[in-house]
Amino acid sequence: MGRFILASASPRRLDLLKQIGLTPDAVLPADIDETEHNGESPTTYAQRMAIEKAKKIAKDEKDAFILAADTVVACGKCILPKAEDLETADKCLKMLSGRKHYVLGGIAVIAPDGRMVKKLVKTSVRFKRLSLEEHQHYLDSNEWDGKAGGYAIQGLASCFIPSIHGSYTNVVGLSLHETAHALYGLGYKK
Questions:
Q1: Buried b vs exposed e over 23-33: b needs ≥16 C-beta within 10 Å?
Q2: Which residues are known catalytic residues?
């Protein structure tokens, strides 16, 4: 049986996998161009990113099960960026406030024999309308830093979310149900 490699730098994905007893033998983030293509839908983008990351690592790791994922926060056809500065976080929160949006999780698993399973998980998330105080408090927390769409459902932002429809772990960063199903379906054994 091959090794299990996580092609992601996300500490949240690693933590989620460990919750279900799936500890990768190695974590090898894939360095790829993550530029959106003109006219590319958020769903297509999320799936393409996961596939490209998995294929990049699979080139050098022939004997391994490769898991790659990408999380996209989308309001309509607009992909919200990963918040890496205060201005971006502020714009994301303003866009999310009082609206429903989607978290799209692209998942790609490549087996040692080259077979690939790809999944797209879509979770609907409703944000309450944020008061100015709530908005500022969240920005001051810096919890948004490095998060797709500028928030983390598993932290302070949980009080802004009255409902979700779909996979909670997808919103955190990786749908565990779909991931386990893909790995075991390709023959991976712990």
A1: ebeeebebeee
A2: 70
Domain boundaries, the chain: 3-185
Which DSSP category does 114 fall into?
Answer: S
Q: Which CATH number fits domain 3-185: 3.40.50.720, 3.90.950.10, 1.20.1440.230, 3.90.226.10?
A: 3.90.950.10
- CA 148-153-156 angle, to 5 degrees, is 110
Let me know how long the chain is.
Answer: 190
Q: Which residues contact 19 (CB under 8 A, 6 or more apart)?
A: 176
DSSP string, 119-181: EEEEEEEEPPPPPHHHHHHHHHHTTTTTEETT--TTTGGGGG-SEEES-HHHHHT--HHHHHH
Picking from 82, 80, 85, 53, the residue whose alpha carbon sits closest to that of residue 69 is 53
Contact 96, 74 (CB under 8 A): no
pTM: 0.93
Q: How confident is the model at residue 64 (pLDDT cuts 50, 70, 90)?
A: very high
Over the stretch 74-92, which tens digit does the pLDDT of each residue have?
A: 998 999 999 999 999 999 9
Q: How far is 92 from 140, CA to CA, in rounded Å? A: 14
